[in-house]
Amino acid sequence: MKLAISSDNHFDVNRIDLDSIIPLQAEYLVQKNIDYYFITGDLFNNFEESVNYVERLQQEVGSTTKVYFIAGNHDMLNGVTYQELERTNLHPQYLHHRTLRIPEKHLSIIGNNGWYDYSFPDQLSKKTAPEINHWKQSFWVDQKIDSPLNDQERMKIVLKQVTADFQTARENHDKIVFLTHFVPQQNFIFDQLDHPRWQIVNALLGSKRLGELIEEYPVQYTAFGHLHIRNLPQTIANTTYIHQPLGYGVRRAFEWQQPDFLTEWQRTLKVLVI
To answer: In 10 A of CB 164, how many CB atoms?
Structure first.
C-alpha cells in the first residue's frame, strides 16, 4: 500500500491554474500507484476553495486513489467557522479528528488540524501569554481565524481529541500514521532566538505537548507542515517525522528549488510504502 503526503501547496498565493494542474497531479498519483493521498493543510486561504479542490482532484483520480485533507491555518482564514471545523462529518474527505483504519495492515491513519499554546521555549524574550496574544492580534495572519477560545484552551481540545484517537488505535493494536498541520516537536522550530520577532512567532507554530503525547503511543509516522522549510525524515523516540512542505513560489518569497509548481510538488511529495 502506498501513501502520498503533501503540505502547504498554497494554490492561490502561487497563482496556480487548477484546470491545468489537477489533471497533471491526478495523472502522477495514478502513475505512481498511490492508494491514498493526504494533504496536511494550507491549500487555499479559504476553506470552501480547499474543499472544492479536493473534490475535483478526487473526481479526476477516480477510484484509483483516495484523497483526504486536514486544514491548516490558511484554510481557516475564510469560509469556515471554528464550530464547523470541529464537525467530524463536515466533509467525507476532511480527516480532522477522524481515523481511517486499514485493518489488514493493522494501521490507523489519524488526522487532526492541531493548534498552538505558546509552549515552545522562548529563551530570550520571556514574553507573557497576553503579550504574545496581543502581538498575534496586531500582526499575525491568524488574527482572522474564527476562534471562540484562547489558544491554550483550543490546544487542550486538540490534545484531548488526539489522545482519544490514539487510545482507540492502541486498543486495536494498530500502528499509527498521524497527520497534523502545526509543529509537534521542538527540533523543527526556528533557531533564531536572537531576533525578537521570531521569538514570538515560535510561540504560534505548534505545541511541544503534542510531541510529548506522540511519544506515548505507537506512532510510526507523523507528517506536518506549516513551516516553509524542509527537513529530511527525522526519527525522535519511535516516530519518524515528515516535513517537506511545498511553500511559496512567488517573487517576494521564492522557496522552491525548481521553477515550476508541478515539478516542485513531485519533489516534495513524500511516498510511504506500508
So the answer is: 12
